[in-house]
Write a structure and sequence with these properties.
With 158 residues, the chain is an all-alpha fold. The protein has a single domain (4-157), classed as Ferritin, core subunit, four-helix bundle (Ferritin, Up-down Bundle), CATH 1.20.1260. 82% of the residues lie in helices and 0% in strands.
Length: 158
C-alpha cells in the first residue's frame, strides 16, 4: 500500500513525464516543419535560417528525451496529429503561393508563437524539479528569440 507521500510523488512524476512528452512531440513537429519549409525555400539566407531552426528543435528534442530517460521513461518517437495537419497546410499554402518567402516566414512565426505559448503554459501550470525548470526556461528563451530574429529576415522577403 502506498503512503500519501509516495502517491504524491507518483502523481508529480506522471505529470512531469506527461508534460515533457508533449513538449518533446511539439519539438519533433517544429523540427519537421522547419525541414519541410527549408526544402521549399528558394532564398539561400532563409534556407540557412530554417536549417538552423530545425537543428535547434532537434537538439531540444534530444535534451527532453534525455530527461525522460533519466526519469526511467521511454521518450515519444514522433510528433502530434495537429503538427502533421499544420505541415499539410503549409504544403497547400506554399503550393498556391509559389514557395513565397513571406508565406514561409508567416507559417514559421505561427508555429513558433504556438510553441512559446505551450512552453509558457507548461511552466506556469506545472511544478518541476529545478533542473527541468531551468532546461525548459532556457529552451523557451531560444524559441522566443525566433520571433525577434524573424524581423531581421523580413528584409529577405522584399
Amino acid at each position: 500500500m502506498e503512503t500519501t507521500r509516495e502517491e504524491a510523488n507518483q502523481i508529480q512524476h506522471d505529470e512531469t513525464v506527461s508534460s515533457l512528452q508533449e513538449l518533446l512531440k511539439i519539438n519533433y513537429d517544429s523540427r519537421e516543419g522547419f525541414k519541410q519549409v527549408m526544402l521549399k525555400s528558394e532564398n539561400p539566407a532563409l534556407t540557412n535560417y530554417l536549417k538552423e531552426r530545425a537543428a535547434l528543435h532537434s537538439a531540444f528534442a534530444t535534451e527532453l528525451s534525455n530527461v525522460l530517460i533519466s526519469l526511467n521513461e521511454t521518450p515519444a518517437e514522433s510528433g502530434t496529429t495537429p503538427g502533421a495537419i499544420h505541415r499539410t497546410w503549409i504544403d497547400i499554402k506554399t503550393t498556391f503561393t509559389g514557395n513565397d518567402a513571406e508565406s514561409i516566414l508567416e507559417e514559421c512565426i505561427r508555429g513558433e508563437k504556438s510553441i512559446v505559448e505551450d512552453y509558457k503554459t507548461t511552466l506556469k501550470d506545472k511544478i518541476f524539479a529545478p533542473d527541468i525548470t531551468a532546461l525548459l526556461t532556457n529552451q523557451l528563451g531560444y524559441i522566443s528569440s525566433t520571433l525577434t530574429e524573424v524581423k531581421s529576415l523580413e528584409n529577405l522577403t522584399d
